[in-house]
Amino acid sequence: MPPKPARELPEVSISDDGVLRHLHLGTPWIQGSMLVDAPFDIALEYVQRMMAWLLFVEPDSVGGRHAMQLGLGAGAITKFCHKKLRMHATAVELNPQVLHVCRAWFKLPPEGPRLAVVLGDAAMQARRSASRSIWARSMHWPWTCTTTMPPRRCWTAWRSTPTAVPCCRTKAA
Predict the structure, then answer these.
(1) Where do the H-state alpha helices sit in the chain?
(2) Beta bridge pairs of residue 24
(3) Average pLDDT over residues 38-54
(4) Cα separations (Å) of 49 from 67, 152, 154, 156?
(5) Which residue has the higher pLDDT, 39 or 169?
(6) pLDDT at residue 122 above 60?
(7) 12-142 maps to which CATH number?
(8) Residue ranges of domains in the chain
(9) Are residues 167 and 154 in contact, defined by beta-carbon separation less than 8 angstroms?
(10) Eight-state DSSP code of residue 64
(11) Among 16, 18, 23, 81, whose CB has the most other CB atoms within 10 angstroms?
């Protein structure tokens, strides 16, 4: 099999208006933001909405969960889960420049027992994690389920329970 061609990754840049610092990937479009005076809070509304899953779990269970972010961006979710929620957090990022900029400009904490950053392809990491049953060990993320039921039962339970979050491991029937 011929080797895959190397991916050309976008140039990473930042902008700062004194209140918010923004991450850009090769365009003026904002990929992530941080409040300069509150770096572990979530600045952008759409990112805040990704944390809605917290409404559906017991508060005492949050610290024992593991969040996995596929694509680091400005690290807002990873930092929030790690610092504010005291969760284990893993971020998978393809672009080493993004990791460097997050550490230098977006207050991403150093790795430790509860924080890991994997440089690599998120799709490959997700496949690898799924094969090791990490998804079944309460790995929760805003768009994933809050149960460890088998996928089919999870989707069925979600469809019949208005307060549940749909499972990431299943597709709509």
Answers:
(1) 45-49, 76-79, 96-105, 122-131, 151-160
(2) 13, 30
(3) 96
(4) 15, 26, 22, 24
(5) 39
(6) yes
(7) 3.40.50.150
(8) 12-142, 147-173
(9) yes
(10) G
(11) 81
